[in-house]
Design brief:
The protein has five helices and eight strands, in the order αβββαβββαααββ. The chain is of the alpha+beta class and 186 residues long. It folds into two domains: 94 residues, Beta-Lactamase (2-Layer Sandwich); 68 residues, Orthogonal Bundle (Arc Repressor Mutant, subunit A).
């Protein structure tokens, strides 16, 4: 099952909508301050009391992304969020680079789980048969799972660059995996 959008991802998406290419998070006066940055220009977009649940969640996400970049779908595109920790007046501060994720090489088979492969195979067969992408309800009927499970799987496939969608448009799933790399539909 996929994960919900985090506060961290929401802040990065907001920064992108402002035209920024990074965010910085710094501690000052008992608060965690978040700035959207483009070059040397920074705009404050949020601040949280350091003792709040939001600040704790944000710092956990930053720490996690500092160990391994996070793939996230922001504003309909897949991005890699890379965190660098630096010292700011004796406190840890964070710089988050928001870079578009590289496209998969269509000639090499992508990595996905068996379950994800079945969803991809279904999307391929449905699109081929009906000449349009399946709706989430079509996937729900076929796989006999709940609507939230389907939605989380779609978000996971999109985050892993296996499909892409057009935000706000129904039946817009587009497969990014070559048919020869798909498993047989069971």
């Amino acid at each position: 099952m996929g994960r919900p959008t985090t506060l961290f991802e929401g802040l990065c998406g907001h920064a992108l909508s402002l035209g920024a290419e990074m965010i910085e998070v710094e501690y000052k006066d008992g608060r965690e301050w978040v700035f959207a940055r483009t070059g040397n220009i920074g705009v404050g977009i949020a601040d949280y009391p350091s003792s709040s649940a939001d600040a704790e969640e944000l710092l956990e996400s930053l720490s996690s992304a500092g160990k391994k970049p996070i793939r996230a779908v922001l504003n309909g595109q897949v991005y890699l969020l890379k965190v660098r920790t630096f010292d700011s007046f004796g406190e840890d501060a964070y710089e988050v680079r928001i870079n578009k994720a590289p496209k998969l090489d269509p000639s090499s088979p992508p990595s996905f789980t068996a379950k994800q492969g079945q969803y991809l195979a279904f999307i391929h067969h449905y699109t081929k048969t009906h000449r349009r992408a399946p709706a989430e309800t079509d996937l729900q009927r076929y796989f006999h799972v709940s609507p939230p499970s389907i939605h989380e799987m779609i978000k996971t496939l999109e985050r892993n660059s296996l499909i892409e969608r057009t935000l706000g448009q129904a039946r817009s799933i587009r497969l990014l995996v070559q048919p020869e790399h798909l498993p047989p539909l069971e």
